[in-house]
Amino acid sequence: MNFEQLQKQIVFIHEIDKIKYIQRKTRLFNSDRAENDAEHSWHLALMAIVLSEHSDQKIDLLKVVKMLLIHDLVEIDAGDVFLYDTVANHTNTEAELAAARRIFGLLPAAQADDLIAVWEEFEAGETAESKFARAMDRMEPLLQNRSNSGGTWQEFNVKYDKVLEKKSVIREGSQHLWNYAKALIDQSVEDGILQK
Amino acid sequence: MNFEQLQKQIVFIHEIDKIKYIQRKTRLFNSDRAENDAEHSWHLALMAIVLSEHSDQKIDLLKVVKMLLIHDLVEIDAGDVFLYDTVANHTNTEAELAAARRIFGLLPAAQADDLIAVWEEFEAGETAESKFARAMDRMEPLLQNRSNSGGTWQEFNVKYDKVLEKKSVIREGSQHLWNYAKALIDQSVEDGILQK
C-alpha cells in the first residue's frame, strides 16, 4: 500500500492542531474566557452556512467555508494581530505569506497550491466568496462584544468611529447584514457600552 | 427593515457558542489538555476537505462539512458520551433528538428542518456523505491517542479488539483510510501503547 500522499496530509492534520492554542483578544459570548482560533474558525464556518442567503452576490458556499476554516492557520507561525492594533498591520504581511507556504506546504503540492490560493483570495477580499467570508469574520466579534458589555471595545478603549470603519467590511458582503450590524453598533452607543 | 429571519439566525449563532465548553475525553495532539467540541468539529471539517479524495464513493463535500460542523451540537443539551462508554448508548438517543429539535429549532423553520435532516443523516450513517463524515470522527481521536502514548486507550483501559471494532467505521467511508488506520492500530500494539 502506498501511503505517501496520505502521510503528508496526516502531517498537516497534526500540525494544524496548534491553532487550538492561539488565543484571540475577543472573548466567548457572555464570558471572560478568550476564544481560540479553532473555536473562532468553527463558528465562522457555521455562521456562513446559516447566513449564506444574505450574501449580496451568488457564492460558492463550499469555498467560503474552506476560507473560514483555514483563514487563521498562518497564525500558527505569525501570531494573532488584534483588529484594532494601531502598530502592527492587520493585512497580508510577509510573515503570514511565509507561514502559509510552510504550513500548507506540508500537503501534497497540488493541494498546497490550492489552499494557498484560497487563503490569498480571502486575504485580498476581492471576490464574492472572500467578501462574504470577511463579513463573517467581522460579525462574530461584534456579537461577542455586544454580549460582553462592550468587551474589547471597553478593554482597549476603541471608539465608535473606529468600530464603524472596521466593521464596514460587512457591507461588502451583505447590505442586509450591514444594516443589522450598523443598528447594533448604534445601539451599543445608546447602551453605554461603546463611546463616541 | 425586516430582521425577523436574521434575528432567529443570530439567536442560533449565539446559542451554539456553548459547544466551546463541552469537553471531550480525548486530548489535543501531544497534550494533556482535553479537546472541546468546537475544536473537534473544526478539525474534522478541515480533515474532510483535505482527505476527500480518499472517499470510496463520490461525495457532496459541502454536505459532509455541514454534518461535521453541526454533528455535536446536540451535546449542548445531551452531553458528550464517550465512544467506549459501556453503559450509555452512543447512538441516536431520545435526548439527542430532543436537543436537535430545540437547538436547530431556534432557526427559521425551513432551515431548522434542513439541518435536522443533515444531522439525522449523519447519525444514521447510511449515505456516502455520512459514511465519510463518520470516518473523520473516528480518525481524529485515533491520531490523537497515537500522539499521546495511547491516550484514552490507556486512561480507560480500552483493548485492541474494542478499538478495532469501533474504528472499523472508517472502512465504510474509505478503504484506503482504513488500511492506514488499521496499520496504526497494529503499530500501537507493537509500540506498547495499546493492549491486546
Structure description:
2 copies of one chain form a homodimer. The first copy, chain A, is mainly alpha-helical and 196 residues long. Chain A has a single domain, classed as Hypothetical protein af1432. Helix content of chain A is 62%, strand content 4%. Chain A has helices at 4-15, 37-51, 61-70, 75-78, 94-104, 109-124, 128-147, 151-155, 160-167, 169-173, 175-190, and strands spanning 23-27, 34-36. A two-stranded antiparallel ribbon of chain A has the order 1-2. Chain A is globular and about 65 Å long. The model of chain A has no long low-confidence stretch (mean pLDDT 94). Chain A binds chain B through residues 1, 3, 6, 9-10, 12-14, 16-17, 20, 28-29, 35-36, 38-39, 41-43, 45-47, 49-51, 54, 61-62, 65-66, 69-70, 107, 111, 140, 143, 147, 176-177, 179-180, 183, and chain B through 1, 3, 6, 9-10, 12-14, 16-17, 20, 28-29, 35-36, 38-39, 41-43, 45-47, 49-51, 54, 61-62, 65-66, 69-70, 107, 111, 140, 143, 147, 176-177, 179-180, 183.
